[in-house]
Amino acid sequence: MSRGRNREWDTMITAAKNWVDLRRDAASGIESLRTHFTGHAYDPHWHDSYLIGVTEQGVQQFHSRRKQHQSRPGTVFMLEPEELHDGDAINEQGFTYRMLYLSPQQIAQYLAPLLAEGPEQRKLGFADTLRDDRPLAYAVWHAFDAMRHDHPALIKDAALDRLFGQLTQHRLWRASEPVYPDARLALQARDWLIAHHADNPGLQQMAQSLKLDRFRLSRLFQAHWELPLRA
Questions:
Q1: What is the distance between the alpha carbons of residues 81 and 101, in angstroms, rounded to a whole number?
Q2: Angle, nearest 10°, between helix axes 153-167 and 134-148?
Q3: Neighbours of 222 (CB within 10 A)
Q4: 164 CB-near residues (< 8 Å, 6+ apart)
């Protein structure tokens, strides 16, 4: 077998070992993800949601907040909306994790008293990306199971109350950053892409719609989001 075929075969074997199981709770809208990856898991990206999960098996290596992290079994990982991150396995055993996606609206709903008491012009974030906190890990695990297996409403509510009770111990109030002109343009570019990506637009079309030079558009997008437009 040629080297090219060897590489293609290795890629097929690796892909066969990876799996993703994503579900959405009909009542709350909370999404739960359980997945396993070997090798390279995913390129840098971000979400509109708060992410909180637990590594089940293996070592989950990723970059976030300009640092490299390694989440091991039992470690809780937490990411804020629009927080850039990637993912890789450090060996052939790969890694498995379970995670909940919580929208800003859901955070606001469940933490309304806390948010009402928070400082003005501040937004709620996570103090740490990784936490070795057994009570928090158990709370994430049980909330995941309650959502995943569609437990009775009272059990779901109790599991979520437990989770958010634990999360309040790891909160961090972040100052709302002023929106400078270039940052505002980068936000507009992001929103334009979300609205028009299905139309397969080109860079020139995007730049004309935003009334920008295409080269300036590329530079400011890369500077703000730490990703090229093509990503």
A1: 10
A2: 150
A3: 14
A4: 110, 111
CA pair distance 108, 192, nearest whole angstrom? 26
* Residue 47, both tokens: 């979400």
**What does the alpha-carbon distance between residue 22 and residue 94 come to, in Å, rounded to a whole number?**
19
Q: Using an 8 Å Cβ cutoff, are 221 and 189 in contact?
A: yes
DSSP string for 49-115: SEEEEEEEEE-EEEEETTEEEEE-TT-EEEE-TT--EEEEESSTT-EEEEEEEE-HHHHHHHTHHHH
Both tokens assigned to 57: 């098996």
Q: What are phi and psi of 160, to 5 degrees?
A: -70, -40
In DSSP terms, 55 is beta-bridged to 97
Using CA atoms, how far apart are residues 17 and 40, in angstroms rounded to an integer?
12
User: Six-digit token pair at 75?
Assistant: 């470690």
Higher pLDDT, 218 or 88: 88
pLDDT 10s digits, 70-110: 999 999 999 998 888 999 999 999 999 999 999 988 887 77
Helices vs. strands in the chain: H and E counts, helices first: 8, 12
| Residue owning tokens 């079309």 | 205
